[in-house]
Amino acid sequence: MADATDSGVAFDFKPMDQFIVKPLGGSAGDPVSMLTITNATLWLGISVLAIIALFVLGTRGRAIIPSRTQSVAELAYGFVYKMIEDVTGKDAVKYFPYIFTLFVFILFSNFLALIPMSFSPTSQIAVTAVLGFSVFFVITAIGFIKNGVSFLSLFWVSSAPLALRPVLALIEVISYFVRPVSHSVRLAGNVLAGHAVLKVFATFAASVLVAPVAILGVVGIFALEILVSAIQAYVFTILTCVYLKDALHPHH
Amino acid sequence: MEGELAHIGAGIAALGTGLAAIGVGNVAGNFLAGALRNPSAAGGQTATLFIGIAFAEALGIFSFLVALLLMFAV
Amino acid sequence: MATETTTSTSACVDASGGAIGMPQLCPDWFTNQIFWLVIALLAIFFVLSKIALPRIAAVLAERSGTISNDLASAEDLKRKAVEAEEAYNKALADARAEAQSIAAQTRAEIKADLDDAIAKADAEIAAKAAEGEAKIAEIRAGAMESVSEVAKDVAAEIVTALGQTADAKTVGDAVAARLKG
């Protein structure tokens, strides 16, 4: 892949190396078992600590007039709470802690992954698939527990002409089962794409000729990635709310 | 030879990301047009906007994933 | 990295430490990632749901309580101000109404006195006028009687002077006929 250019610089494109999981302090390729402390574990732990710092230490004052960190925590709380109320309805507020956990985990993982040399858990299909499929299974279970067999009316579009209904039902079933795949691949794909592009631009910076353009590109993509980090956390959460609404009120 | 064909395939698959960009632009542009006609209703529809963008973008991400698989996993 | 000569035990990493294929799809790392992810999610969930979210909810509720308390007390003060103004206006209106009623009463009393006095004076005047009229009628009656008596006497004298005799009855009828005229 690496070709020597006129300036004698070999571009060594390795955009995927940043996603390698390796034992902490070890090198790539060392064996990883289930309990090994890896770089992925480290950055998951940093996410957890950052979340605790913001939401537990930040709100320690319980001030009526909030401090700066406390108002950030309250802002996040109010944002997700209002989203659930608006999208899913008042009866979904009891699922608020679960949805809020998903939101802050993805948000903090995305933002911490933007630190250079860090590891991005949300770029891993294994991580986002666990998130997406757990949301899918939990929501399907909630749908059947709340509505019983009538949950299946979600797939039977009663407002459509009778002849079309079986076809629509097939499409609805397929789209229902594609949901967890697209839910998890969207998140992983966005983060993965951003980081790979950053790496490619950074590799170009090795050549003096194109370095200014490459560095400008890195800056621009980095700014875009900050936006994408927040938007993907928002989108993952709001789609969870939409799916939850389907499970709680399947009759359209 | 097979590897080169895979790279060509990856390039073709990457076109899909550009097509998804058209879709995202469509969603956002139509939202903006509607929002300018009726600004008071726009605020309540930002969630719908983001859901629409997410769905349009997800398909682009799929083709990007196909390109990546062709590049690195085939 | 490139100097490393140890053979990699993983199928996803080549000898120089670079990735083979997509690291995301390397099955060797799945269990580790999923295990630690579940641990992290559980930790976040318990910390948030046991400590952080109740605390933030309490703070928000307290704040909205404080704000609504302040608003309520402001509302209370405003209502008191409005009440005070109403009481003031009412007192003013009462005083004005009382003054008006007193004035009206006084006016009515004065009018009643006046009417009384006027009626009395009218009655006096009427009585006096009636008295005067009676006197005039008496005088007129007296005068008429005198005139007819004088006329009778004069007529009798004239008849006598002319050398004739006339009885009193004839003279009287003639005079009465003439006087009626």
TrEMBL record, chain A:
GO terms for molecular function: proton-transporting ATP synthase activity, rotational mechanism. It comes from the Bacteria. The chain crosses the membrane at residues 40-58, 95-119, 125-145, 152-178, 198-219, 226-245. SUPFAM superfamilies: F1F0 ATP synthase subunit A. Signal peptide: none annotated. Keywords: ATP synthesis, Cell membrane, CF(0), Hydrogen ion transport, Ion transport, Membrane, Transmembrane, Transmembrane helix, Transport. It is a multi-pass membrane protein. It is found in: Cell membrane; Membrane. One of its GO terms (cellular component) is proton-transporting ATP synthase complex. The keyword Hydrolase does not apply. Belongs to the ATPase A chain family. Key component of the proton channel; it plays a direct role in the translocation of protons across the membrane. This is ATP synthase subunit a.
TrEMBL record, chain B:
It is found in: Cell membrane; Membrane. GO terms for molecular function: lipid binding; proton-transporting ATP synthase activity, rotational mechanism. SUPFAM superfamilies: F1F0 ATP synthase subunit C (SSF81333). The record marks 57 as: Reversibly protonated during proton transport. It comes from the Bacteria. It is a multi-pass membrane protein. Its main location: membrane. Residues 8-70 form the V-ATPase proteolipid subunit C-like domain. Keywords: ATP synthesis, Cell membrane, CF(0), Hydrogen ion transport, Ion transport, Lipid-binding, Membrane, Transmembrane, Transmembrane helix, Transport. The keyword DNA-binding does not apply. GO terms for cellular component: plasma membrane; proton-transporting ATP synthase complex; proton-transporting two-sector ATPase complex, proton-transporting domain. The chain crosses the membrane at residues 12-36, 48-73. HAMAP family: ATP_synth_c_bact (MF_01396). F(1)F(0) ATP synthase produces ATP from ADP in the presence of a proton or sodium gradient. F-type ATPases consist of two structural domains, F(1) containing the extramembraneous catalytic core and F(0) containing the membrane proton channel, linked together by a central stalk and a peripheral stalk. During catalysis, ATP synthesis in the catalytic domain of F(1) is coupled via a rotary mechanism of the central stalk subunits to proton translocation. Key component of the F(0) channel; it plays a direct role in translocation across the membrane. A homomeric c-ring of between 10-14 subunits forms the central stalk rotor element with the F(1) delta and epsilon subunits. Belongs to the ATPase C chain family. This is ATP synthase subunit c. It comes from Thalassobacter stenotrophicus.
TrEMBL record, chain C:
GO terms for cellular component: endomembrane system; plasma membrane; proton-transporting ATP synthase complex. Its main location: membrane. The chain crosses the membrane at residues 34-53. Keywords: ATP synthesis, Cell membrane, CF(0), Hydrogen ion transport, Ion transport, Membrane, Transmembrane, Transmembrane helix, Transport. One of its GO terms (molecular function) is proton-transporting ATPase activity, rotational mechanism. InterPro entries: ATP_synth_b/b'su_bac/chlpt (IPR002146), ATP_synthase_B_chain (IPR050059). Pfam families: ATP-synt_B (PF00430). It is found in: Cell membrane; Endomembrane system. It is a single-pass membrane protein. Component of the F(0) channel, it forms part of the peripheral stalk, linking F(1) to F(0). The b'-subunit is a diverged and duplicated form of b found in plants and photosynthetic bacteria. Belongs to the ATPase B chain family. NCBIfam families: PRK13454.1. PANTHER family: ATP SYNTHASE SUBUNIT B (PTHR33445:SF1), ATP SYNTHASE SUBUNIT B', CHLOROPLASTIC (PTHR33445). F-type ATPases have 2 components, F(1) - the catalytic core - and F(0) - the membrane proton channel. F(1) has five subunits: alpha(3), beta(3), gamma(1), delta(1), epsilon(1). F(0) has three main subunits: a(1), b(2) and c(10-14). The alpha and beta chains form an alternating ring which encloses part of the gamma chain. F(1) is attached to F(0) by a central stalk formed by the gamma and epsilon chains, while a peripheral stalk is formed by the delta and b chains. This is ATP synthase subunit b. It comes from Thalassobacter stenotrophicus.
